[in-house]
Design goal:
Blueprint (H helix, E strand, L loop, with lengths): L1 H22 L13 H15 L4 H13 L30 H14 L6 H15 L32 H9 L5 H7 L7 E3 L5 H4 L16 H10 L9 E3 L11 H7 L6 H4 L5 H11 L3 H15 L21
Antiparallel strand pairs: 1-2
Helix pairs in contact: 2-4, 2-5, 3-5, 4-5, 7-12, 7-13, 10-12
The structure holds protoporphyrin IX containing FE.
Protoporphyrin IX containing FE (HEM) binds next to α3 and β1.
Enzyme class: oxidoreductase
Pfam families: peroxidase
Cofactor: Ca(2+); heme b
């Protein structure tokens, strides 16, 4: 009995600590110090996305990759220095785009409010606006993150690979205090954007290392596989881009779930959502509709992801330029 009581106390204390850490971010954090920050980010995002709508996907993905490695601390934005290779130059991040644009938006924010707004917060706002300007949900972004000073390429092994199965996905998400619902909800970020052929061509030509046309991922629907093969004719294709949500890859909608439900998810990890009863039911329900419910879920999970291991208070710094520490 005594040990159960101790356990209960520990659970309460841990839960309170988690809530307190999350509570350190605040939607009105820059209310006094930089009231125009959201308007500046929005103005820049509207400009950029009207010229290049395909930037929305990379910016959403960049925030995710930031949060999964050392928390949402802008570490993904730092350049490599001398012998120390930063996250940015690790394999999963070589396909990220938009670093120059983040730097431009940060410069615009710096001009209005010098040394005040972190790169991590600028990126969180850009990701929210990327979704909203793609006709997805809007949410208030809790702010007050500080920027880290460390970025280590090897730590990107905390990012889920496209080959991951359900167990690996849930473990990698759980390591960031994100649960199975967050996994199925946030995976729908794949309703916008594009992917290189090499991120999934093993499913078409080399699923078990045999390198032949019969060595395919059996979970991928065959007609879709044929279509993907015509777009990605070989394993060595390093340049071709494929729409992640064919037909509506610029619009944040339920398209992702409709494709996954038909076994047409682009990555093995997308298909893996059909291998668990809970995530499968979520995919099937949202393939059939309930966009409002999905939008509310996505907003909630983004706020949760945006809280992962954040630096606050006197921790870290407010970088002047996002690619280098002060
Ligand atoms: C669940 C595990 C996930 C895996 C394994 C995964 C993997 C990938 C891969 C391999 C790409 C293609 C990269 C390329 O070849 O260019 C990609 C693209 C993308 N991912 Fe994920 N991802 C995951 C979760 C997420 C989450 C949580 C989000 C955001 C909430 C997200 C947003 C995106 C977006 C928007 C793109 C398109 C990027 C572009 O247009 O350049 N992904 N993802």
């Amino acid at each position: 009995m005594a040990s159960r009581a101790i356990l209960a106390v520990v659970v309460v204390v841990v839960a309170a600590a988690v809530a307190a850490a999350a509570a350190q971010l605040d939607e009105k954090f820059y209310g006094q110090s930089c009231p125009s920050v959201e308007a500046i980010v929005r103005r820049e995002m509207v400009r950029a996305l009207s010229a290049a709508p395909s930037l929305a996907g990379p910016l959403l993905r960049m925030h995710f990759h930031d949060c999964f490695v050392r928390g949402c601390d802008g570490s993904v934005l730092l350049d490599s220095q001398g012998n120390s290779t930063a996250e940015k130059d690790a394999t999963p991040n070589k396909t990220l785009r938009g670093f120059g644009f983040v730097e431009r938006v940060k410069a615009a924010v710096e001009k209005a409010c010098p040394d005040t707004v972190s790169c991590a917060d600028v990126l969180a706002l850009m990701a929210r606006d990327a979704v909203w300007l793609s006709k997805g949900p809007f949410w208030a972004v809790p702010l007050g993150r500080r920027d880290g000073r460390v970025s280590i390429s090897n730590e990107t092994n905390q990012l889920p690979p496209p080959t991951a199965n359900f167990t690996q996905l849930t473990q990698l998400f759980a390591a960031k205090n994100l649960d199975v619902k967050d996994l199925v909800v946030l995976s729908a970020g794949h309703t916008i954007g594009t992917s290189h052929c090499f991120s999934f061509s093993d499913r078409l030509y080399n699923f078990t290392g045999m390198v032949n046309v019969h060595d395919v991922d059996p979970t991928l629907e065959v007609q879709y596989m044929a279509r993907l093969r015509s777009k990605c004719p070989s394993l060595d294709d390093n340049t071709t881009l494929v729409e992640m949500d064919p037909g509506s890859f610029k619009t944040f909608d339920l398209g992702y779930y409709k494709h996954v439900a038909k076994r047409r998810g682009l990555f093995h990890s997308d298909g893996a959502l059909l291998t668990d009863a809970f995530t499968r039911a979520y995919v099937e329900r949202h393939a059939a509709g309930f966009q409002e419910e999905f939008f509310a879920d996505f907003a909630a999970s983004m706020v949760k992801m945006g809280n992962v291991d954040v630096l606050t208070g006197a921790q870290g710094e407010i970088r002047k330029k996002c690619s280098v520490v002060n």
